[in-house]
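Our preliminary data section would be incomplete without showing what the modeling component actually yields. Below, a chain of 229 amino acids is followed by its predicted structure, encoded as tokens that our downstream tools consume directly.
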Amino acid sequence: MSYVLVAHGTRKRRGVSLIGDLASRVAATLDRPVHVAFVDVLGPTPAEVLGARTGEPAVLVPAFLARGYHVGSDIPAHVRDSGHDDVTVTPALGPDPQLVRVLVDRLVETGLRPDDSVILAAAGTSDPAALRDLHTTAAWLSATLGARVELAFAATGEPRVADAVATVRAPGRRVVVASYLLSEGLFQDRLRASGADLVTDPLGTHPGVTRLVVSRFRRARALSGVRGR
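Predicted structure:
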């Protein structure tokens, strides 16, 4: 069985390396190779990776933190174009309680204080289902922190992160942006330029993300075995 991790893609070398590192950590846990593909900016594409492995079943995990165009349209199109007839595509990584725990860890390691105002910053989307996913994550993070967390966007959607920072800023209170991005890139740069007092690192290779990706592969493999009986 082939394992394929599909990410968005970025021109930032650090962002590409981060996805490669995540795949390596997942592969080490699964004790088998994990191939990386990208739906935008650079290759190889999912169609190319799958097309080279048509002789065995494949599991594809979308490394996206919510549903959206890439998960709902791009990836299925790549699967069709690949000519591979035995591909299991798992749900996107988010929303998931595991990601909320990763967000909290990132906030704590960045120096979060109880009186800080927190903004959850996502890339953004015009897809209603993806937007619901993001609001779900913001609500879960609010419940975990015991304080309201505002949702803002680095690209598509309102409010933009810089505007949200300006709106919630109050005398004597810091504004902390919790990055809801998987890797470094243009959007993470925008978060750091938003005017917030603190910005967390992307979720990246946090052990919790590795565990979540591993669980997606294992569950899909198990379900594939049940269907094949």
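The chain is about 45% helix and 20% strand. Helices lie at 13-30, 46-51, 69-82, 97-110, 128-145, 161-168, 186-192, 207-227. Preliminary results of this kind motivate Aim 1 of the renewal.
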